[in-house]
Design brief:
Elements lengths: L1 H28 L7 E2 L4 E2 L10 E3 L3 E10 L5 E13 L1 E14 L2 E10 L2 H12 L6 E11 L7 E4 L3 E4 L9
Parallel strand pairs: 3-10
Antiparallel strand pairs: 1-4, 2-4, 4-7, 5-6, 5-8, 8-9, 8-10
C-alpha cells in the first residue's frame, strides 16, 4: 500500500512539474503585442471670436484635422467605435459610430466636417438652460482594435472644444 501511495505522489509531482515548466516556457516564448498604431491628438478647426478654445455653434458642422499612423510595413485591419464625451460638465458619452477599415502603412492626415449629433445638441441645450455656463465642452474620441491580436488597440481623441447654443455667446473660460 505504501509503495502505491508513493508512486501516485511521485507521478503527481512529475505532472505538476511538467505543467509549471510548460507554463513558464509559454510565458517566456509567446510574442509580445506590438504598439503599431499612433494617433496624435486631433485638432478642431472651428473658431469663434472671443473664445480661447475651438468652438462650434449650434447649426455648424465640427471640422477636425486628424492624423493616424500605422508604423508597421503591412496594412492593419481595425474595427472601431467613435463617441462624443463631455468634459465640462463630465459624465456624458454619446456613441455616434462603429465601423471597420484598414490602416495602410505610414501616416494619413485627413480633415473632415460632420454635423454635431442630435444627442450632443440636446444634452448641451439642457445643461446650458439649467446653469450659468454658456457652452458645454466636449471631445470626440474613438478606440480602434486591430483584428491581429498581436497588435495593441489604440485610442484617439480630439482636443477639447466648446459646443454653444447661438443664443448665448461663447465666452473665454
Amino acid at each position: 500500500m505504501k509503495s502505491r501511495t508513493t508512486r501516485v505522489l511521485a507521478a503527481t509531482v512529475v505532472v505538476l512539474t511538467v505543467v509549471v515548466v510548460g507554463q513558464f516556457t509559454h510565458a517566456q516564448t509567446r510574442p509580445e503585442p506590438v504598439d503599431a498604431l499612433d494617433y496624435p491628438v486631433q485638432r478642431v478647426l472651428n473658431t469663434v471670436a472671443g473664445s480661447n478654445r475651438p468652438t462650434v455653434l449650434f447649426g455648424q458642422d465640427v471640422t477636425v484635422r486628424g492624423t493616424k499612423c500605422n508604423t508597421t510595413p503591412d496594412p492593419v485591419a481595425v474595427s472601431g467605435v467613435t463617441s462624443w464625451v463631455s468634459v465640462d460638465p463630465p459624465g456624458t458619452v454619446i456613441e455616434v459610430g462603429r465601423g471597420n477599415t484598414t490602416r495602410a502603412p505610414g501616416c494619413v492626415t485627413r480633415v473632415f466636417s460632420d454635423p454635431v449629433p442630435a444627442g450632443v445638441l440636446a444634452r448641451t441645450a439642457a445643461v446650458v438652460a439649467h446653469s450659468a455656463a454658456p457652452c458645454m465642452t466636449w471631445t470626440i474620441t474613438g478606440r480602434e482594435a486591430p483584428s491581429d491580436p498581436l497588435i495593441e488597440p489604440e485610442v484617439w481623441t480630439s482636443e477639447p472644444f466648446d459646443v454653444c447654443p447661438p443664443t448665448r455667446p461663447a465666452t473665454a473660460p
